[in-house]
Amino acid sequence: MRISYREAMRTALHDALASDPRVFLMGEDVGKYGGSYAVSKGFLAEFGPERIRDTPLSELAFVGAGVGAALGGLRPIVEVMTVNFSLLALDQIVNAAALYRHMSAGQFHVPLVIRMATGAGRQLAAQHSHSLENWYAHVPGLTVVAPATIDDARGMLAAALADPDPVIVFEHALLYNSEGELSDAWRACDLTSAQILRQGRDVTLIAWGGTVAKSLEAAAALAAEGIDAEVVDLRVLRPLDDATYIASVRRTRRAVVVDEGWRSGSLAAEVMARIMEQALYDLDAPVARVCSEEVPIPYAKHLEDAALPQPAKVVAAVRRLLGKG
Amino acid sequence: MFEFRLPSLGAEMDEGTLLEWKVKPGDVVHKGDVVAVVDTSKSAIDVEIWTEGTIHELVLEPNRKVPVGTVMARLLEPGESVEHAEAEMRALPAGAVSAGAHAAVASVGDAPAAAAPAAAPRAGTAAAAAPSRQRVSPAARLRAQALGLELTGVTGTGPEGAVTLDDVEKAAAAMRPADRAAAAAAVATTPAAAVAPAVAGRALAMRSAIAAAMARSKRDIPHYYLAADIPLVHLQRWLAARNADRPLTGRVLMAVPLLKAVALALRRFPELNGHHVGDAFVPAESIHVGVAISLRQGGLIAPAIHDVDALPIDELMRRLADLVARARALTLRSSEMTDATITVTNLGEQGVELVQGIIYPPQVALVGFGRVTERPWIEDGKVSVAPVVTASLAADHRASDGHRGALFLNELARLLQQPGQLDAGAT
User: Fold this and answer.
1) Using beta carbons and an 8 Å cutoff, which residues of B are at the interface with A?
2) pTM of this structure
3) Chain A residues whose beta carbon lies within 8 Å of the beta carbon of residue B138
4) Which of A7, A28, A79, A128 is catalytic?
5) Backbone angles phi, psi at B272, to 5 degrees
6) Can you tell me the distance from the alpha carbon of B311 to that of B55, in angstroms, rounded to the nearest whole number?
7) Is A138 considered catalytic here?
8) For chain A, where do the domains classified as CATH 3.40.50.970 start and end?
9) Which of A22, A243, B42, B188 has its CA 20 to 30 A from that of B129?
């Protein structure tokens, strides 16, 4: 069945609300407006204001309320409009949700799911366009996922709700309109493994969220040049599934990490470091990365395009690794 | 000024790799002097110069592979001034002289070693383009090591000219089968990574192997050191007579009777011949003498010649020549690497008089020879000039005492002064 990412996510939310009375959705514009990205359109009428709750513009308060509800036995799904705004709620996420299990010696779990849009590409300017997944992937106590495929959009939410501890779900804003085949694999979604989306011999492209499609596009362009690229979708940003991408790099002996975050202190840097730690002697070239330029993401279309990782940049990085740059 | 170019050292040779300069700027060279060591596809060869002059500039840096006819050095003709040569060079078309040549000469003019020019910073475009260290990917380096492949001369196709796995596989496939087998054998049979293949890797591996063995020796072995001067009047005369009517290839070098005398003397001093294993000394039944051989690319190995005490002099000469050649070609057998019961080191060629050696564990003794020099020698109340060598013994005090060590040196001196006893299995 061919559906959009938005429909997959919406179906997943609908399933969750319909199947478990403890689940409720809370966030800015999720009710009357139907969600900033129209994921919860019609939910208010179907499930009522108790379970589809519009909140004031106060991320710290409503994320904190979600933490409290989770501690009280509910299964809240809190939607934060973009990762930029989530910084207002960092205290509740990092100092509360992520810590209670540890600080209570396992007596209290926080079964909270926080969904947030991330990434650029829609000319929403700097305050709505950044990719800060690495900020959360840094924090013990959190599970951080980035569904990039239709199957994951459909299946990851249920897995996140089943997790007794807080899970952050990053949905790249450009993905909502993307379409693809929904396979049965969504039923087996886990929050632990990376996935090889395309097999190849010459280089491993490691991507997640918004850069997965760009990496697949780059791989297709490389194939036309006779370069066989493998594409790994990390899926889970914390904890990283080292085994999958390391095994891939051992086979291909070259890696390019494609990360929409800024280069300095990026998640790409972490992945590269792990490759050095675990696969140095299998490498046939330095590990490379394609990240966003280190500027606030610009508004102007041509500047925004230039600031972001693009398939052509990935292709160029691969050519350099193969001595063809 | 004249240019010294890479000569063809054989019909098949069309390129070579400079391994080492034997001269430095300012050195005066004469016809027949060895000025450089060049690796051809077959072996390392000492390259002689056939013109007299003074080295003005070493143009070619070691470890560069170049075609035959490439300018290696520039020399001043006898009587020519530096100014004249430089004026001549300036007159050459642009590009014919490497940029920065003058600066390089000036900065290394008083440098002590021939290796200095390679280390001196050079502003030349060639130096800027070629990294000082060959770029090799980790996977390629590992694979080359497993294959026993020499990476010098392998052209890299990876990023920034790095040698990749694919380059290594192709170079290995291009190796002649015999070379491949030899390289693989060297990797498989030589202990302590002593002959790991890549030049840089090999030098490093050998350095760390030497470091480990010598540190262990100084840590565990209570050494005592003895030395004695031995006149070699009779031995030199005996050798000269022996070599007189022989072709160059049949002549016996001084190192051979020295080795033989050590082996014969050891027959009476078993406490110096064997291994210290666990807490006890285990004397060896045979006398296998390890010969310290310095390698051209740096480092040291001490493979053994078996049953030296029972070998006739000519046979011992043959074995020694063979051993040195194979050591430098890295085709030693594992038994040679592990069987030595004592080591002999001869640093006489380097001009030193006294060697105070470090025992190669688990052996218990090392005999050193310095240079044979003409010295005043007093015998029977008369002063004469005699060729004299200083023989030294470093021995493990756990296995022997200084008294016995001294008697060993006496026996060695006696044998070296009665060269007739050295041949065959004389007792």
Assistant:
1) 137-140, 142, 156-159, 161-162, 164-166
2) 0.54
3) 280-284
4) A128
5) -105, -5
6) 45
7) no
8) 2-188
9) B42
Q: Which of A59, A79, A133, A171 is catalytic?
A: A59
Judgement on whether residues B121 and B143 belong to the same structural domain of the protein: no
SS3 B393: strand
Residues of chain B with C-beta less than 8 angstroms from the C-beta of A278: none
Assembly ipTM? 0.76
User: What's the topology of domain A195-321?
Assistant: Rossmann fold (3.40.50)
**Rounded to a whole number, what is the distance in Å from the CA of B64 to chain A's nearest CA?**
22
DSSP per residue over A127-156, as a string?
GG----HHHHHT-TT-EEE---SHHHHHHH
A182: left (phi over 0), alpha (psi -120 to 50) or beta: beta
Contact across the interface for B139 and A320, Cβ inside 8 Å: no
Alpha helices in B281-346 (DSSP H): 313-329, 334-338
Separation between Cα atoms, residue B171 and residue B155, nearest integer Å: 9
| CATH pick for A2-188 out of 3.20.20.140, 3.40.980.10, 3.40.630.30, 3.40.50.970 | 3.40.50.970
